[in-house]
Amino acid sequence: PAQLTTSAVESFNACRQKLQDPSLCMKLYFCGGLEHPTSRMKELIQYGFSEQDFSHGTFGVGLYFSKHPSKAANFCPLGKILLAEVALGKTESVVKKNHTRRTPPSGFDSVMTPGRLLPSPHGDSTVANQEYVVFHPDQAVPVCLIEYQFVGHSATNGHK
Question: Which of 72, 135, 143, 149 is the most buried (most CB within 10 A)?
Answer without folding.
Answer: 72
